[in-house]
Design brief:
Elements lengths: L2 H37 L1 H26 L1 H7 L5 H36 L3 H16 L1 H16 L4 H23 L11 H24 L12 H33 L3 H17 L1 H19 L3 H28 L1 H5 L6 H33 L4 H24 L9 H34 L1
InterPro entries: MATE_fam, MATE_MdtK
Protein name: Putative multidrug resistance pump
GO molecular function: antiporter activity; xenobiotic transmembrane transporter activity
Length: 446
């Protein structure tokens, strides 16, 4: 087997467009944060906490629908009728998720005054969530069409759609937050309305682009039972729960930070957004890995699986160490893009060294999870993330970062130290799991 031709080039061919897609996706949150932060740090704190409330819901839905990617990738040799059945099941699941998501996010909006201590921040978060809830169906169906295209390794429609989404969201954010002409100044809550409006524009574009490339998306005569659709939902649930456990943990840490003051919230939200933007590339590599390993599994190419796994680990380590160096070396310049408040700036800059180390281990665990998903091993990442985040990171972050246990004083730095240690444990455990599964297959063969 030629490593460059058969392993590295196919991964890069998939990963590079996925990197553009993931960066566009992450940039949406970064743009909202930057626009709100430059408007006023209270608005930054409000939409930051609001985002931490609705993002886990959407990430859960994304994980559930992601099961379509390895399934469609493994069905490339099957008839269009069989793929059409799977897509119809996905549409039914997306419909159920849209209704549930709208109701749940509206309820979360009403809970803001009880969940957030600062009432000014709570009011901004509430208004923001009310707007976002109306955009959930558009986001869910856009994600469905994306994963159908991704499963076919057709990434151009996704890139075009996310570019349109990014331009629309950025333009609408600037107009709605700051006001222009007859449009009133809405403050940070305007980013929620911008997200909702952009979601439907992007959903329409995604459907038009993908349906031209994949005719099965337009098939309407295929009848699928509710039981089969429910089965697809159950298969995707472990992926969704794994992702939501991570996002919920980060949201919980944000609420821990909120007990340390509005400026601590703002600083924490800035570094979280920077981290989420940088981790998009390992996520893209992980998605490419899932597709390639699922392909090798379908063709029983065992050497391809192990070579792919080793290759992506090397790529990920090179990238993560490079980004860690940039974060540490240019921390002041990067953070100043988000805020001009001196206190928020100093706290955020102080956190950047922890973020750099966190990103190295988070990149490793992200790619290891992609290897396991490609092997249709969905439960192992779930159990490891559950243990590391909810039995290690969350309890220790609260006791040490908020309550000041074993510390001179409570501060947000301690929360990030605990987070970094916990994610390193997750990276080690997931790497061991993926190695055991890949080499275990090889041993069976021999």
């Amino acid at each position: 087997m030629n490593i460059l031709k058969d392993i590295l080039f196919p991964i890069l061919k998939l990963a590079l467009p996925l990197i553009l897609i993931q960066i566009c996706q992450a940039s949406l949150g970064v743009i909202n944060t930057m626009v709100a932060g430059r408007y006023y740090y209270i608005d930054l704190a409000g939409i930051g906490l609001g985002s931490n409330m609705w993002t886990p819901v959407f990430i859960l839905f994304t994980g559930i629908l992601y099961v379509l990617v390895p399934k469609i990738s493994a069905m490339q040799q099957h008839s269009s009728q069989e793929i059409g059945v799977l897509i119809q099941q996905g549409k039914r699941v997306a419909f159920l998720l849209s209704i549930f998501g709208f109701i749940l996010i509206q309820l979360l909006a009403f809970l803001c005054p009880w969940l957030i201590g600062d009432q000014q921040v709570a009011q901004i978060a509430k208004q923001y969530l009310h707007f976002v809830a109306f955009g959930v169906p558009g986001l869910v169906y856009m994600t469905l069409f994306r994963f159908v295209s991704e499963g076919h390794s057709l990434l151009k429609p996704i890139i075009l759609t996310y570019a349109i989404l990014l331009v629309c969201d950025a333009s609408l954010c600037l107009v709605l937050v700051n006001g222009i002409g007859f449009i009133p100044e809405m403050g940070g809550a305007g980013t929620g309305l911008a997200t909702a409006m952009s979601a439907y524009i992007a959903c329409f574009c995604m459907y038009q682009f993908v349906s031209k490339a994949i005719p099965e998306l337009k098939i309407k005569r295929i009848q699928v039972g509710f039981k089969e659709s429910l089965g697809l939902l159950k298969q995707g649930l472990p992926i969704g729960i794994t992702l939501i456990l991570q996002i919920l943990a980060l949201a919980t840490l944000a609420f821990f930070a909120s007990q340390l003051g509005a400026k601590a919230i703002a600083a924490h939200q800035i570094v979280i957004n920077i981290a989420m933007l940088i981790i998009m590339i390992p996520i893209a590599i992980s998605s490419a890995t899932t597709i390639r390993i699922a392909y090798f599994s379908a063709t029983n190419h065992h050497q391809g699986k192990i070579s792919t796994s080793l290759c992506v680990v090397v790529l990920t380590l090179i990238y993560s160490f490079l980004m860690a160096g940039i974060l540490i070396g240019f921390a002041q310049h990067i953070v100043s893009l988000f805020t001009q408040d001196a206190e928020v700036l100093n706290v955020a800059v102080g956190l950047m060294s922890y973020v750099a180390i966190f990103l190295i281990f988070d990149a490793i665990q992200t790619v290891a999870s992609g290897v396991l998903r490609g092997l249709h091993q969905f439960m192992q990442p779930l159990f490891i993330i559950l243990f590391c985040y909810w039995f290690v990171i969350i309890p220790l972050s609260y006791l040490m970062g908020v309550q000041g246990w074993l510390q001179v004083r409570a501060n947000v730095d301690v929360i990030w130290i605990v987070l970094t240690c916990g994610i390193s444990l997750a990276a080690v455990l997931l790497t061991i799991q993926s190695y055991c599964h890949v080499t275990g297959i090889m041993n069976k063969r021999s």
